Amino acid sequence: MRALLSVFSRARDRSRHGAWIYNAIVEQARRPQFYESFDVPDTIDGRFDLIVLHAGLYLPRLKSVPNEGKGLAQATFDQMLSNLDHNLRELGVGDVTVPKKMKGMVEAFYGRAHAYDTALKGGDADALRAALHRNVYRGAAIGHPKLDALATYVRAASEALKAANDTDIVAGTFAWPAP
Predict the structure, then answer these.
(1) Is 177 within the bounds of a domain?
(2) CA end-to-end distance (rounded Å), the chain
């Protein structure tokens, strides 16, 4: 019985820790500079895309940490999904529609994360700008300096995550670069 309680306790602790990491990701995604300096639309979609962008950068790095990384990455992802589900319901989306909307959001997450990762790993600045324009700006007209500034930030964040020590990544205390 004691072993079973220990498993539940570890799962609950991992869930709390995942929530902490997710909240740190959201805090970075909500920095006013993204909306004021980079002209990211301050809308539900704009906020969603910045959360997805940051989670898509952070979660693979967290997952790469030996031992606890994969479990914490999953707990953080689960917290993100729980938060998105809650927000949909708060916005008045009906119980019947929520699963369909959630499926679309999960697909959007994976598609965007893959596009950013592919562009970053390939060092393809044009592909990164195209992915950011398509996703964050939803194809709207945006000046090249704003788009380039966001792409520069994303590359800097990616490099900073690679260079960060595992302790900061696992703790959720990683210091994101300034937007």
Answers:
(1) no
(2) 49
Find out whether 49 and 109 touch, Cβ atoms under 8 Å.
no
Query: Band of the pLDDT at 95, cuts 50, 70, 90?
Result: confident
- Tell me the C-alpha to C-alpha distance, in Å, between residue 99 and each of 71, 91, 110: 24, 14, 17
Backbone CA torsion sign across 99, 104, 107, 108: negative
Q: What is the pLDDT of residue 20?
A: 94
- Give the residue numbers spanning the domain of 65: 2-171
Count structural domains, the chain: 1
pLDDT tens digit sequence for 20-32: 999 999 999 999 9
Do 49 and 136 contact (CB within 8 A), yes or no?
yes
**Residue whose C-alpha is closest to residue 58's, from 149, 133, 168, 137:** 168
- Does some domain include residue 20? yes
In a domain, 176, yes or no: no
